[in-house]
Amino acid sequence: MRKLLVIGIGAGNPDHLTVQAISGLNRADVLFIPDKGAKKNDLAELRREICDRFVTNPKSRRVEFDVPVRAEPAPSYRSTVDDWHETIAAIYESLIRDEIADNGCGAFLIWGDPSLYDSALRILERVRVRDNVAFELEVIPGISAIQALAASHKTALNRIGDSILVTTGRRLTEEGLANNVGSTVVMLDGKCAFNTLADQDVTIHWGAYLGTPDEILISGRLGDVGAEIERTREEARRKKGWIMDTYLLRKPGEPEDI
Question: Does domain 2-140 have CATH number 3.40.630.30?
């Protein structure tokens, strides 16, 4: 049976790769590298750099494939994403069937950690349910953007005894900050949802391009740095053509409780 590895490669720094991830890369006969277009070539280039640096298997080869652009949400966000995932599932199925030998091993290189706000595992489950190609799946965890954010800001994610909520910009806009949560990590925020918060005394630790040479960090009281983050984010996105960022929000509290 075909073997498929889903390997977390970290948040942007090749040094984030774990020993387990490097071993997985070298077990694979085929390494799948997604191409999201010229504007996001940096994402594919990092994967190539990782392969150049860590892969020593002489039989290994790379297969690059185009990732379709997701349509604008209409009539709903969920239905749009569902259609997009179905299209990608067909691509994954073809790659597994055509590029991996019957008893061979292939690997997808996943930014961050495969379990956290990444769709590869859900898409591969669609492929499995189709039952057109059989494969055994193995997941190798990676350093996530959340961990990289906390490390870069030299802070713990939680206060003692407090909970952490991981959510999206969309949900933060709709729901605001939960009353019973001390720290909130926000991902997938394309519209600076922190601007919708009424409490401007919240502390924000923001980071973009975490772990890369282009890393940007801003932190402080939201009311003081919110506009700076929004301006910096837009300038960076315009310059590179894409941006990948996340941030930690923390309600006011005693420093010794952190």
Answer: no
